[in-house]
Structure formats: structure tokens, C-alpha cells
Amino acid sequence: MGDLARIFKAYDVRGVVPDELDEPTAEAVGAAFVEVTGASSLVVARDMRVSGKALVEAFVRGALSRGAHVIDAGLGSTDLLYYASGSLGLPGAMFTASHNPARYNGLKMCHAGAVPVGSDTGLTTIRDRAAELLGTSPGEPTGTVEERDFLPGYADHLKSLVDLSGIRPLKVVVDAGNAMGGHTVPAVFAGLPLDLVPLYFELDGTFPNHEANPLEPDNLRDLQKAVLDHGADLGLAFDGDADRCWVVDERGESVSPSAITALVATRELAKHPGSVIIHNLITSRAVPEIVTEHGGRPERTRVGHSFIKAEMARTGAVFGGEHSAHYYFRDFWFADSGMLAALHVLAALGEQDRPLSEVVAIYSRYHASGEINSTVADVPAAMELVRQAFAGRGEVDELDGLTVTGPGWWFNLRPSNTEPLLRLNAEADDEATMTTIRDEVLRRLAK
């Protein structure tokens, strides 16, 4: 039970293979998943990690021992698994550790219709039941297995959601990081007027070139150089399971996920006037401003996909975006798809003649620090120091950590769920003010 408690997180399962996550554990989780969800049928997929195939086979054995029919999608991105779950109306399990290093693997699980399984929607119960089953005989497999290829249907479905019929030819560099973007991008881009320059499309779970984590600036350098070298119109980088997409403009400059959120929001509002748009509390304040200006209704949530998805379902929001380059769509079962966001960017760029840097400039109104992590010995004490330092200087909000909003600036400081870290995001009207606020908070944390 102790080991399972360590690898079962708030929204998924993740651990080092085989020290924390091994085949007997995967088998127990497969059996528990069927018992807890009551699934008579389910769909499974995996990313390219070396340990994935054996872990999926073990999970399937567990599911079969409970009489389930398993549809094996084979290799796929997480949003491909969501497509399978949504289109079939079945629960699903995706074996991936997302952007984590090669020695990790894990599980993202969903109910029928791609509804997430989180700690308050079954994940804790699955963990507890799997712990009881560990070390026991799973029983004879009474279920059945069927292999099915969802890639063509997934690609067609995404392209049905974005009108790309009138775009001009574009040169696009895509860095797949030897991960699942190398599998899905060729299928999705097929038939579009795109000159594709592929980087690291060979599936290799050892990540020989760089980790598949585009949030780390070092992992974008090859993409940025290739965009300049090839004179490309833009660059796209996907993470390990290709559910997140990072965008680079024609100058090789990163485009803020807040700007992408605002861009996609305006496009969705043009199709669905007056709709709700979800954003988490550390996206740029330009996002709710632009949503309001375009007749939408911005709704603010805590950081984390379970909060975004729950709020989208509650409000019927047409779109949601996060600072971490996760983008959620009502037309995609309220699930996140980096590929769908990428298609929106391609459509917005290809519908007119300006370069991407000019297209996104109108969505980038303020100066942001980006997320800065600080290791602290005592998280509550450090938070209190900052709270006292800014007492009376702005409006205080504690929806998620500590947010202080002053004249022309704001910052949010929130604790990590898993480490003794505090995460800082600051934004201001001008760079000098942002730097001043950022540095003052960091000084307090260093004491």
C-alpha cells in the first residue's frame, strides 16, 4: 500500500519502472480498474516508452481476469486515447509518463466519454483495491482482446473540428522529441498544404536527443534553430504523450501559452458567440480581457486539468487553456488536445498573410515572469512571509495558493502537490515593474 500511495497522484499514476511501477502492480490496477468502473469493455493505448508494452500486457491480464473486453489501440497519444474513449463511449487507460524522463512510466485513466478519473472520481478507490489484489492470484482470463487502429479516425475527427480548407501553404518544423508526435503528426497533417520539416520523429523511449518536455527552454533550442535555418513559418513541439503543444514563431521566439489560449478562444467564440471560456488563475490577465472583448464569459479556475475539466463540464465552456500548454475543447469531450490547438494556430496563420509574430502580438499585452520554482524548507512559513510583506499593497485571493493584485501587477505563489517547492508567476504592465515584484518575492523566499 505504501508503494501504491507513492505512485498514485491526484490525477494519474506515475513512477520509476520497475522500482515503483512493475508488471504485478499494473495487473492489479487493471483488475481494480474494471471492478471500480464496472466496465464490461474498455480501450487501452500506450506511448513509446520501453516499458510500455509489458505494462500494458499486464494491465490487460488484470482486466481480462475480471471478464472485460479490451480494445487495444496500440501506440497512440493521450488525446488519441481520449478520442477512442469518447467516440466509443468506453472507459480508457493510457500508459504514459508524459514529459517525465525515460525511466518513468504511468497511467492516465478515464471513464466513458473521456471523463477523467482523479482522486475524487475513482482513482483513490482503484488504488486501494489494487493494493488488496497485489500478491494474490488474478484468476483465469475470461475476457477477450481486440486490436484496433484509431489513428485514421482520430486524424479525420480533429480536422473536422477546424476549417483548414482555405489556408495558404506553410512551412512547419515539428519537434516530436522521439515521442508520440512522431506517430500522430504525419496522419493529422496528411492532405494539408504544409511543408513539414520533421525533427526526431523516430519513436524512441530513451529520448536520445532531448527530453520530450517543451516547457524546459533547453528542449526547444533545436526547434528554434531549425525554424530559422529552414525559414519556416512556425515551429511546434509536443511532449511525450503529445497532449501538449508548444508554439515557436518565425523568428524562433516562444509564443506564450496564454497568447495561444486567447487566440483559440477568439476563434471558438466566433463559432459559438457568448460562450464560457475557462482559464486558470496564472494565465495572463490578457486572456479574460480578450474573451470579454469578444463577447465571451471568462471563468477562472485553480491550476490542474481536473479543475479545468470539471469547470468546463459544469459551465458548458467551449474552450479552456492553461499556462502549461494544455488546451481543452468542448467538441473533444472537454478533453485536452495539443494537436487540435496546433490546427487552430495553423488555421489562424494560414487564413491571412502576416507572420505568426504579428498574429499573436495582439494577444500578448503584458510582461510575465514565467513559472519560477523555489525550494523552501518550510512551505507554510515561506508563504506567510510573502503574505506579510505584501499586506496592504494589493487585493489578496487564495483560490489556489496566494494571489496578490496591485496597481498594474499581480503575482501568484502556490505550493507544489508533490515537492517542497513554491511556484511563482508574476505579471505586470511593464517589464521593470514585473522584475521588481518578481525579485521581491524571490528575496523573501530565500530568507
Question: Strands, helices and their partners?
Answer:
Blueprint: H1 2-7, E1 13-16, H2 23-37, E2 41-46, H3 52-64, E3 69-75, H4 78-88, E4 92-95, E5 104-111, E6 115-116, H5 119-133, E7 144-147, H6 151-160, E8 170-175, H7 181-189, E9 194-199, H8 221-230, E10 234-238, E11 245-248, E12 254-255, H9 257-271, E13 276-280, H10 286-293, E14 297-301, H11 305-315, E15 319-321, E16 327-329, E17 335-336, H12 338-350, H13 356-361, E18 367-368, E19 372-375, H14 379-389, E20 395-397, E21 402-406, E22 409-415, E23 421-428, H15 431-446
Parallel strand pairs: 2-3, 2-4, 3-7, 8-9, 8-10, 13-14, 13-15
Antiparallel strand pairs: 1-5, 4-5, 5-6, 10-11, 11-12, 15-16, 16-17, 18-23, 19-23, 20-21, 21-22, 22-23
